[in-house]
Design brief:
38% helix; three-stranded antiparallel beta sheet; 10 helices; 21% strand; alpha/beta; five-stranded mixed beta sheet
Length: 317
């Protein structure tokens, strides 16, 4: 069994934050993932690296020795990853900006304003599937390299657009700068003849007893997590039916007079009317996120303000 780079990153995060929970928050992963990495490190070395008590987690002498090795090795690995990311990308003198984003209609506005601010920069896009925080069910990662802080640290991202529900997600990973692009609620899709159709808004409690359609697959994992967590917190009882894709979900919504959760702004579906939920539990923010010590920090707040203004104007009721 070999020591892995992620093991050393976890050890350093625990040392810096004083606990497994603090390391998880700083890295944007769940605490179970930190525990597994530390256990892997201990099995690989045959050493006990942490002592835990009610005050937190403390490095043993062996742990401190490994931490000195990590402090020497990890900057070199990060430099190597950054250099490798610049290879094989055409003109080596061309500056590139890597943007990761959850699927959202705000992304074209972000890329448009980036090109206006930085006309000589080549923009690269990457889809994020809720990778920056603890995830549930079939959409889960404990890998620090795919969590948002790791993607910034290893120069695989310069900016990110993420959804963040304060009542469900807790704080963003530490050491990240952010600005709000929009504040939105979930939408509920229903057939035209449904009792909830045609209203200006719907309360979460009004879904009690309804059949709700959820789409499987990683792309829809964040929506499932957001909606089901809000339902559990509100003690609303619903029935669930699953669909393989958006088209099947829309068809079932009309066929069984069910309810189809969606993020703004879904593609039109014949016969489906979307109404916003009005509860704070389903409110979330679209955030622009960056690393505070990066070049992007100098202009990212200005970019967020421009995008926020245009987004409000484009989708004004």
């Amino acid at each position: 069994m070999n020591i892995e780079v992620q093991d050393l990153r976890m050890l350093r995060a625990v040392a810096e934050n004083g606990s497994l929970a603090g390391a998880a928050r700083a890295l944007g992963v769940n605490q179970a993932g930190v525990t597994r990495r530390i256990q892997h490190l201990e099995r690989a070395t045959g050493l006990v690296v942490l002592r835990r008590d009610h005050h937190g987690a403390h490095l043993t002498a062996a742990g401190r020795l490994l931490l000195r090795c990590a402090d020497d090795l990890l900057p070199r690995i990060d430099h190597l990853l950054a250099a490798g990311g610049r290879e094989g990308r055409g003109d080596p003198s061309a500056e590139r900006l890597r943007i990761g984003a959850v699927p959202t209609p705000v992304l074209p506005l972000v890329t448009t304003h980036v090109r206006a601010l930085l006309p000589s920069v080549a923009v690269e896009l990457r889809v994020l599937l809720d990778a920056y925080r603890e995830q549930a069910g079939d959409v889960r990662t404990d890998d620090v390299e795919t969590a948002l802080p790791g993607l910034f640290r290893t120069h695989r991202l310069d900016l990110a657009v993420v959804r963040h529900a304060p009542t469900l997600d807790g704080p963003l990973p530490e050491r990240l700068g952010s600005a709000v692009l929009a504040e939105e609620n979930l939408l509920m899709g229903t057939a035209a003849g449904h009792r909830l159709a045609g209203r200006r808004s719907v309360a979460l409690s009004e879904l009690d007893g309804e059949t709700c359609l959820l789409v499987g697959g990683r792309r829809h994992g964040e929506l499932r997590r957001h909606f089901t967590a809000a339902v559990r917190r509100s003690d609303v009882r619903i029935g669930l039916r699953w669909a393989s894709d958006e088209a099947e979900a829309a068809a079932l919504t009309c066929a069984v007079h069910g309810v189809l959760p969606a993020y703004p702004y879904p593609a039109p579906a014949a016969g489906v009317i979307y109404t916003p939920l009005s509860d704070a539990a389903t409110c979330y923010r679209l955030l622009l996120v960056w690393q505070p010590d990066s070049r992007a920090a100098a202009w990212a707040p200005r970019l967020a303000e421009a995008v926020r203004t245009m987004y409000r104007s484009a989708w004004k009721p």
